[in-house]
Structure formats: structure tokens, C-alpha cells
Design brief:
Layout: H1 9-17, H2 23-30, E1 36-37, E2 43-44, H3 59-87, E3 94-100, H4 109-124, H5 127-132, E4 133-144, E5 154-164, H6 166-174, H7 176-184, E6 198-202, H8 207-222, H9 231-241, E7 247-250, H10 257-276, H11 303-308
Helix pairs in contact: 1-2, 3-8
Length: 313
Amino acid sequence: MPPFPTLSRVDLGEFYRKHADLEYQALMLLECGSGEKSYPSKRRVNNNFLLSCHHRHCPDCQSTRAMRWAARFRQLLDRQVTETQRLDSPTPTWVLITLPGVSTLPRQVKGEIDTILSLLVEARTKNFWGSTIRCALAILNLQPHPEVSQHLNVVPCAKIIALLTKPGVAHLNSGALLNALRKQWPRPPGLKPENTPTIVQISVTNEQERSSASRLIERAIQYWYPRPASTANFLELVDQLNGAQQIHTWKLGRIFLKESVIQQDDLRYEREYTRSRIGEDLPTTLSRLGNNSDIPWNQPIPQTIRDLTRVYY
């Protein structure tokens, strides 16, 4: 079960449809997966890549992204465990570190996200982090506030899945790792215990445990913000998340490089459809257009643009 109620692609489409300037994004969502498209003109799409809307907040597309990352992580775990068994060495120690931010309103989320990301960058420069954590995958999450209505306040946080070094395992067992994290994670005074860092060890010895670990990654990526109560709250949240990179890697190696590139494409795609309103057709045309180009989604498409796209009209 999801950690909180989620919105379907149709639900989100209706949120966008209620805002006149964003109706074209509603069409993107509502027609995701369908070969029949009505934006920016009625046509049939035969390119499999363009059947999905690739919208940043589409639940279906986000589910695909989450499964892709989870599958890569499972490959990494299987490879690691096989190698340790061959060498008769200790099983790798993975942990889930949660670094919570401060409860905030949807319209103020961006500032808290920026603070969290800057603290993460600073933490990576410290010797303790470098000697303790061999590699890590940090996932941006927005959690409902435990006491205030989730419709009003959210708590941005970073969920870090980290592989510990041999000294890191010793620091974990002694409690030094948790103490260091709480010391290096400055938060306003007076916060409750749930607002301080936590560490949970992830067991990966057998196949069932590795499957559970990969599902943890999948859920963290797929359900990364709570269900909003109103169209206004949702649009405020979307505006704050515009351009925010959800997944950050640190020394994960070649296995994740391809997925990192895909995430960069998602962000580039978001910039294209939010600026130009032409939706799926811009990825192949942006390099030929000026930075100030604006092609209204509900206007006829110039023939030169039609010739550049990968869409069959």
C-alpha cells in the first residue's frame, strides 16, 4: 500500500484542467499512453517513446521511472552479494538515512528544498562522510506533517540509501554515525524527535531482502509527495518543485549513469513544456529554436517545426 493516498493520472489532469493556462498539460496527462493526441493538434502518434506524456507529475510515468531505478539498484545488490560470496567476505552493509527538513506550506517548499540540498552538498565535503559512506543514492521526498493536516503542511526530507565502509559499519554499531548526522544536520531549536535524522539498516543477504530493498527505492521515488487537498495547493506545490532534481547520486558507479542521464532529460523536458506549451514535440526541436521561442499549444504548428519533429501527423 502507498504511504498515503495518491492521485491518479485522471485526477491530476482535472487539477490542471481547472487552470485555464495549464489546460494543455491536462491534455498531456489525460492522453498519456494513447496514440490519439489532441495537443497541439489532433493526430495519431506512432512513435512508442512519445506515447507516454513524460510529464514530471504523471503517476504512470513516475511509476515507470521508479521501477527503472529500483531495477538498477537490485542489479547492483545482486552483483555485490555474488561477489562477496565468491570472496567469502562480509555482506555489504546498506542503511536508510532520513534527514528531515522543517514543516512548511506548499508555497514555501522550494526554500526548504534548497536548504536540504545545500546541507547535503556540505556534508559530502566532511571527512567523516567520506570515510563512512562508500556510495549513496539520495531521494528528495515530501512527507505529510505528522500532526498538522497534510493538506496544509509538508515536511521536505532527504532519504539516503547508503553503502557503508568498514569504518562506517563500526560507527553505525557504536552509534557514532547517528550522533554525527544529528550534529551535522542543523535544524531550528525546539523541533520534536521526529524532525531529527534517523538510520535504519537494510538487510540484503537473501533474494527476498534484496527485493524489499529495491521496493524501498521504488516507493521513495514514486510516492514522493502527499496528495494535496485542493487544486490551489497542488499547483503551488508543482510550481515549487519545478526544476528540482529528485534523485542525487554519490559515487554509485557506472550502473546508474544511464538513469542519471534520463533524469536530466526529464528536467529538460519539463522546462520545454512549461515554457513553450507544445508538450511532447519539443525534445527534438529545442536545439533548433531560440531561447525565447514560444509556440502556443493551441495554434497551428509551422511546417518547419512539423518537419523537425519525430511525430507522425
